[in-house]
Amino acid sequence: MMERAGYLQKTRVQALDCDGQPHEVLEVHILGGRFAIRMKQLAGALAGKVVIQVEELTHNYSYYLGSTCGLGQVSHSGKALNISLFHEGNFTVSLSSIRAVMYGRERNAVIVRIPESALPARIRRVAQGQQQIPASV
Asked: Residue 47: which of 95, 85, 11 has the closest Cα?
């Protein structure tokens, strides 16, 4: 079952990168952390299968972009943006709700956590009479 983990919103302010260049960003709030996705990268990802950076966003009299905290890309079905944060897990948000936020029809979009799949241990079938060679690691 997917559970709500945060939201995505468009702010009218611009964030400065490490070179002092302003960028229009979408604010991403996940599990109490504040991150940003650059609008130009997001537009490129919506147009094609491009990987985008999810960067740390700090506020100290102005907004500043920090280090890369994760990656995002459009799902195979083309209906969602999957966000993978390096230390937090995997999340997803609907592309239709992202477009609604980008074009001002909605104020925010819900981000949900993708549950971790418990993969079963791989079972190897051994034929009758087949020798097994032990391996030491």
From this structure: 95
Two tokens at 127? 């034929």
In a domain, 135, yes or no: no
Spatial contact of 35 and 133, defined as CB atoms under 8 Å apart: no
Q: Is residue 51 part of a domain?
A: yes
Query: Along the 137 residues of the chain, how does pLDDT read in single tens digits?
Result: 778 999 999 988 899 998 999 999 999 999 999 999 999 999 888 887 789 999 999 988 889 999 999 999 999 888 999 999 998 889 999 999 999 998 889 999 999 999 877 555 566 666 777 766 776 65
Number of domains present in the structure of the chain: 1
Q: Please give the full DSSP string across 27-44, using - where no structure is assigned.
A: EEEETTEEEEEEHHHHHH
Q: Can you give the residue range of the structural domain that contains 46?
A: 3-113
* Cα within 13 Å of Cα(124), Cβ side: 3
